[in-house]
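thread: overnight batch results

M.L. [08:02]
morning all. the overnight job finished for the chain we discussed friday. pasting input first so we're all looking at the same thing
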Amino acid sequence: MIIWILDSESGIKLLYKSFLKTDADEDIVSGFLSAFHHFSVIEFKQTLDSIEMGGLRWIYIIEPKYNLLFVAADTKNVKTENLMGRLNVIKKAFIEEYHEVLGKWEGNTTIFSPFSNVIEDYYNQWGEVETLTHVADFFDILGVYQQILIMLRNIIEGKMYSKSKISILNRIAKIYNSLKSKEEFKNQEELKNISFSKDSWFNIIDINLIKCDPKLVIKYLNVIIEGIVNTLKEIKGKNLCFKYFSEEKVYAYIFNNMKLLKDLNLDKFLLELFLML
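M.L. [08:03]
and the structure it wrote out:
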């Protein structure tokens, strides 16, 4: 996240704070932002509050009472409403802190320097909240995978005769061992906490939610679950698998938790895997 606080009339930079690595000259960019704001007001008769430019998402807030222009930029994966909300928090705090000074300000920008620490405090708080949100989402994702794995194990243990069961478990063990041999798997410490044995099945509850790479963990869990389902289809056939999944209430679980699965971006994967037999 990058923040500028500018005098909207003169373009003077009151404060600049960046949490992103950038080679841009902050003073040159400050002048450009002010000029762009004036251009949008003159040409479009209104200020533009959001644009995408230079690989970043930019948010503008004008405060006409004090002739201030607040600008924030961040990567495109940050939602516009989140960036706007954070910039509004900074704007409100800045005006509360300096409203008396702004009424008689004579151009000395050093008086605003301490506010840089306030912005940093806010940024750290937002980072903690994001981390907790991601961890909570990932915890829910692991919960879904754990439930699916339990249901698949119940099918193998409860629906298969000895010969089919041995054949299925041997294939699953082969899939797991193949994944373990990949360099990517070896190099990600938390992937080692995805364990498997023919007797105790899969265990994923020991994965450290903070230390791991969630995308990588999800990638390999998808491969494992897809491998199990495809193994069942190959050995028992699609019609029997449909019967097994219905009896084990796999479909009921998916449909009853559809909102959660959509929020976690798991709905498409599970629907295609279990319904497109």
